[in-house]
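#help-structures
NK: newbie question, is this the right format to request a structure? protein is ABC transporter ATP-binding protein
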Amino acid sequence: MTEELPALPDDVLLRVEHLTMRFGGLTAVNDVSFDVRRGEITALIGPNGAGKTTVFNCITGFYKPTAGRLPLKSHEGVLLLERLRDHQISRKANVARTFQNIRLFGGMTALENLLVAQHEPLMKASGLTVLGVLGIGGFNRAERQAIEKAKVWLERIGLIDRADDPAADLPYGDQRRLEIARAMCTNPVLLCLDEPAAGLNPRESLELNALLRSIRDDDGAAVLLIEHDMSVVMEISDHVVVLDYGKKISDGSPKAVRDDPKVIAAYLGVEDEEVADVEREVEGAEAAR
Ligand SMILES: Nc1ncnc2c1ncn2[C@@H]1O[C@H](COP(=O)(O)OP(=O)(O)OP(=O)(O)O)[C@@H](O)[C@H]1O
């Protein structure tokens, strides 16, 4: 029996529906629901251990959720991510991700890193190597297109002059942007970034913000990011989801979330029963403004 796939509103790309993930007796994510919309940057924030990475790992197929559904509109139509194996999540569902630590191929050039990301269409065009070796079929054209696309991305991230340098020789901020460009070379509908601003200096942070905005505005991909740097979150997010102890405690615009007493209490490490006190303090401070 085939289950009917959920109809998602036009602007919703991914719906996280009642997501729960347990590790033995520990509930790392507890009945969390939120939407990731097209044309938006959604930030997932929360104190250490709140469950952010676990949500990411469920969306990107590293974990099978204990419960919940993850319908996503891929290039092929709506798919349930929790039903896919991790490699299908990038290929079929068109979800790309980066990690907290940079995972470029350090010995390969910047250009080669962007070509590796296009391995799949190149392999198809090669007729699984034989025709490719002979230069028959669409392989040469596909290869030219792949190089062209890689160059467009190197221009966009300001690294065209360093196309032939090994990725490991690039400054840290450039490596971060190259990693994002590599993810974008797979034509994702959803780009998931785990702490993209970690370790960046202020100039690199501005370059990252500009890149993420251009991905949102020019490529039509939705961006979902985990970020600890609140200045980045407030600056570039359209939508913020806050987790604390595995539960969603707030969901809205950056301003609404920043002023939410539950969020302030979570970051201050205040117990649940003290939230009302924080609420009164926030209201008092707002009235005094
Ligand atoms: N594979 C695992 N096995 C057991 N427990 C896990 C596993 N992964 C995460 N956890 C636990 O789940 C909880 C949530 O962890 P998670 O890494 O998702 O939080 P986080 O919000 O990403 O934290 P941080 O900001 O510190 O990265 C933590 O208590 C963590 O110890």
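mod (FA): yep, format's fine, and the tokens are attached above. The chain is about 40% helix and 25% strand.
NK: thank you!
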